[in-house]
UniProtKB/TrEMBL annotation:
SMART domains: TOPEUc. Keywords: Coiled coil, DNA-binding, Isomerase, Topoisomerase. This is DNA topoisomerase. GO terms for cellular component: chromosome; nucleolus.
Length: 289
């Protein structure tokens, strides 16, 4: 949106809109609406690019192959600006050394192996079995569906993956903590699909140790509460006192469950950048629902 020159470091400081701003929200809304519309076109588009793989024109075959991998792997298309001087980029900037073709690999036939540095220098490694078939791509896509670009496939596949995984991992009877864990687990699958990795946070071990201390303490509290509840019942105390002990025990059980879910959530997501997919690729309609 704007920039200013940092004279001390001789570099340009860029300023952009905050994620909560109205303009940013409207732009994101438009992005997800286009991705939702893609569901009505995607079967037709996939059928078309499979046909184009047999075209006599090399450019059409190349375009079809690029679209196939953008769709199948949710890869970034990439452009010259992204690559810059570092040599990092997306699918359309890959060189021959970034791919290895295997006639047989394990139990699979016709496997393409990718190994390259993507955005933010995150290494992308993937082995993909393929079928045995033989600023232009986006123009072609827009002719298939208004507003469609290669990036929309990434948003579409991320949101569809989240929707399917949420249906598998969650149920209406789950508590808030269980629902959050199911959502984050579904988001983990999306993040892996989109190669949203990160280094393990330096404070991870310390924060996990602190959380484990809380779990141990809460476990002891729960054991004491159960003992007190049992003693109250054996002593045939007043009903109101027994009920108070029972409620205290249930409350501690819920608290311990939430702490254990937090520990599981942190451990499973320690090397995955969940925030990137949440902010840029997951349709808020799904999160809200």
């Amino acid at each position: 949106m704007a920039g200013q020159l940092d004279r001390e470091h001789a570099e340009l400081l860029r300023h952009t809109l905050h994620a909560s701003s109205k303009l940013k929200g409207e732009k994101d809304w438009e992005k997800y609406e286009v991705a939702r519309r893609l569901s009505s076109y995607v079967d037709q588009i996939r059928s078309q690019y499979y046909q184009d793989m047999d075209s006599k024109e090399m450019l059409i075959r190349q375009r079809a192959t690029a679209l196939y991998f953008i769709d199948k792997l949710a890869l970034r298309a990439g452009n010259e600006k992204v690559a810059g001087d570092s040599g990092h980029g997306g699918l359309l900037l890959l060189r021959v050394e970034h791919l290895t073709l295997h006639r047989h690999l394990g139990e699979d036939e016709y496997v393409v192996e990718f190994d390259f540095l993507g955005k933010d220098s995150i290494r992308y490694c993937s082995r993909v079995p393929v079928v045995k078939r033989t600023s232009t791509l986006n123009k072609y896509l827009s002719s298939l569906m208004p507003g469609l670009t290669a990036k929309v496939f990434r948003t579409y596949n991320a949101s569809i993956t989240l929707q399917k995984r949420l249906a598998e991992l969650s149920c209406k009877s789950d508590g808030q903590a269980e629902k959050l864990l199911a959502y984050n687990r579904a988001n983990c699958v999306v993040a892996v699909l989109c190669n949203h990795q990160r280094a393990e946070p330096k404070s991870f071990e310390r924060s996990m140790a602190s959380l484990q201390t809380k779990i141990n303490s809460k476990t002891q509290e729960l054991a004491q509460a159960k003992t007190a509840e049992t003693g109250q019942m054996k002593g045939q105390g007043l009903h109101i006192d027994v009920e108070k002990k029972r409620k205290a025990t249930r409350r501690l059980e819920d608290q311990l469950l939430n702490l254990n879910i937090q520990a599981t959530d942190r451990e499973e997501g320690k090397q995955i950048a969940l925030g990137t997919s949440k902010l840029n690729y997951l349709d808020p309609h799904l999160t809200f629902a």
